[in-house]
Amino acid sequence: MNYILGTAGSGKSTLTGELKNYIINRNPETSVITLNLDPGVKSIPYVPDIDIRDFIILDEVMEKYSLGPNGGMILASDLMVNYLDDLKDEIDEYNPDWVIIDTAGQLELFAFRETGPLIASALGFSDTQRAVNFLFDSNFVLRPNGFISTLLLAASVQFRFRNISQLNILSKVDLIDEDQIEMVINWSQDFHALAESTNDREKGLIRELSMLISEVFVQMGSTSELIPISTREEKGLDILFGHLQRIFDSDESKFY
Amino acid sequence: MNYILGTAGSGKSTLTGELKNYIINRNPETSVITLNLDPGVKSIPYVPDIDIRDFIILDEVMEKYSLGPNGGMILASDLMVNYLDDLKDEIDEYNPDWVIIDTAGQLELFAFRETGPLIASALGFSDTQRAVNFLFDSNFVLRPNGFISTLLLAASVQFRFRNISQLNILSKVDLIDEDQIEMVINWSQDFHALAESTNDREKGLIRELSMLISEVFVQMGSTSELIPISTREEKGLDILFGHLQRIFDSDESKFY
């Protein structure tokens, strides 16, 4: 089971669909299903095999409880836990090798309420291998401070789902140029490089902070190394797939 | 100018209204205005003096661009930057001592897109004193891992608005009991206590992490000490006000 997480607009749905295609193209005998966990999404760039909207639709929650979009999203997201058994039954019927899970549009609804960790622990069996893919939005990480705050956000998510291996992805790299991609990836691998990319006034602070955050990732046993991905240019999916396989192969369980 | 930030449902709007009342009750001659920056909110527990909904309404954005609530919220939030001059003009007309700013319902729309930092730097004059109040939702910080991930989220926000002093608030403490409040406050003051509150398996990890995060806060020059607040029981507003005054008095500028 592979959970796709990231802030609103970071490219979760697109990656979900493209990753399924990638895996099936690679080996047509692999059974891959997608699961949409966003009760409020209107159009999705893939056809989800299982869909929370069969059970909860944001518009109906808003109408039934007379809520605006924000309150409705909170409640709809909290209500999802009532349908865990149904979702699990549907997954069991497919008996797939892979389940790719596209989470709610707003990161905080999934990651910072009780819902997300609860779903992650309830779905699947005890021997199910799981991973979290956290998307760094290319638009917001080109400056050191945007990069560091996203890194802290990634650490926060990692800690929230800390029993699950996390891969950090630099998403939508077709929006930035090769030099910029290289710069950001370099920051993620070498925190000294990050410190050097900023001006003198902030150097000390950013150096200190980036060292501390890299320690956080080291302590959690995860790598902060970013995997650059562009679904538009079909770039990076092979690297992501390789990393996922390593996570899922790290014990003897089946992939999902 | 005091920005109220926190995840969806953490109590931003309630605090905004109550803080205004508190300041006015304390000194009726103080001029305090509230500014609502959530284009999607339906009902607010106070009457905002300035309202982004005079310029952008989420429903209209959704309809005009055929978007669902999630896409609509993203676009509406990004569109806000077009009305900065209007908002600034309105503030100037009031010429207030305090501006309390209630931000978008979803934290990530304000904090992790370009909008929030852009608004924070554009509103007000160069000598305007500013503070960020980040709300820790009492419901989600009772367990060490929930507390730590919220702490990382707070650090991420602090870094996003790093030129602005940040106060961290334990919100809605009427929902938890006195012992629990004391425990969480204790965690925020003494990271050893946090490490001791968890089980043996996680002790090492949580101790390491909590030390690292406390270092992050120390480096950023902010305190991670939580201020417990219950607007329902009118608790803690005096402490918050004292902290805010210290921030705003730290140089010779006017409060807002």
TrEMBL record, chains A, B:
Keywords: GTP-binding, Hydrolase, Nucleotide-binding. Gene3D superfamilies: P-loop containing nucleotide triphosphate hydrolases. Pfam families: ATP_bind_1 (PF03029). The keyword GTP-binding applies. GO terms for molecular function: GTP binding; GTPase activity. Coiled coil: none annotated. Belongs to the GPN-loop GTPase family. This is Uncharacterized protein. It comes from marine sediment metagenome.
